[in-house]
Each structure stands twice: as structure tokens, then as C-alpha cells.
Design goal:
- With 115 residues, the chain is mainly α.
- It has a single domain, classed as Cytochrome c-like domain (Cytochrome Bc1 Complex, Chain D, domain 2).
- The chain has helices at 3-23, 29-41, 50-54, 63-68, 71-80, 100-111, and strands at residues 82-83, 89-91.
- The longest helix has 21 residues, at 3-23.
- It starts with a helix and ends with a helix.
- Bound molecules: heme C (HEC).
- Heme C binds next to helix 2, helix 5, strand 2 and helix 6.
């Protein structure tokens, strides 16, 4: 077995991977919403999906709900997830899959559901 060749191959693979991660453009916020959030919160933010109804999600098109939500709390919920009093996960944390900028954009995106 040619270890030199093998090592070089590994190195190249690592490099391609690193470059790919660094150069991959952040997904547009609407795309992130559709891919990660809409299945629960709904494409329209109303939370009227099968899962959303079960979880009793808030309606982001409701002005009262919007008034109750604070930007920093929304960003924290998206980044760190949401847990109930017993520590059971209600919504998972997204900080490992989405950048801080993407999370901030999603917070702003939720504001756009306001009537
Ligand atoms: C598995 C279903 C699910 C997915 C997917 C999901 N959420 Fe949630 N989300 C929840 C639940 C459940 C809560 C907690 C509601 C509560 O406290 O009663 C929540 C809460 C939130 C909150 C805090 C404000 C509130 O309504 O209580 C924000 C902001 C939020 N989600 C945004 C997002 C964003 C952005 C995404 C996509 C990156 C996302 N969620 C994906 C289920 C989900």
C-alpha cells in the first residue's frame, strides 16, 4: 500500500471539504424558513401545521403575539432551542446548522408575518 498517496488523498479531501464549507453561500432567509421552520411554524407563520397545532404554536401573524415577542428572546429560541419546565426539548437548537447571521435574519423574517 502506498501510504504517501493515501495521505495526499486524505489531505485533498479535507481541503475540498473546508473550502466547500467556507465558500458555501448562506441560504436566503426564505429558503431557511421553508427548509427548517415551516413544517412546524407554517410557511405563513401561523403555526397551523399538523405539528404546529399539536404543539399549540403561536400565530406570528397576530399583532398581539408579535408585541409579546422580544427580538433577543426569538434569537435565543432559534439558536439555543426551547425547553419546557421539565427540561424536555420543545424545539431544537439551530446554532449548529445556521450561522448567527442566518438566525438573526430568521428573527427579522418572523417580524414580516406581522399584519
Ligand atoms: C419541531 C417543530 C419546530 C420547528 C421545526 C421549529 N420550531 Fe420554533 N418552536 C417550536 C416550539 C414547540 C416552540 C415553543 C412554543 C412554546 O413555548 O409554547 C417554538 C418556539 C419558537 C420561537 C420562540 C417564540 C415562540 O413562538 O414561542 C421562535 C422565535 C421560533 N420557534 C422560531 C423558529 C425558527 C426560526 C425555526 C427554524 C429555524 C423553528 N422555530 C423551527 C417548534 C418548532
Amino acid at each position: 500500500m502506498n501510504t504517501m498517496k493515501h495521505r495526499r488523498h486524505l489531505l485533498a479531501t479535507g481541503l475540498v471539504f473546508l473550502l466547500g464549507t467556507a465558500l458555501a453561500p448562506a441560504a436566503p432567509v426564505a429558503e431557511n424558513w421553508d427548509n427548517h421552520c415551516a413544517k412546524c411554524h407554517g410557511a405563513d407563520g401561523k403555526g397551523q401545521t399538523k405539528v404546529g397545532k399539536k404543539l399549540k404554536l403561536r400565530d406570528y401573524t397576530d399583532a398581539k403575539v408579535q408585541a409579546e415577542l422580544k427580538d433577543e428572546d426569538m434569537i435565543k429560541a432559534i439558536a439555543d432551542g426551547v425547553f419546557d419546565a421539565a427540561g424536555k426539548e420543545k424545539m431544537k437548537a439551530y446554532k449548529d446548522e445556521l450561522s448567527a447571521a442566518e438566525i438573526k435574519e430568521l428573527g427579522a423574517h418572523i417580524r414580516k408575518f406581522k399584519p
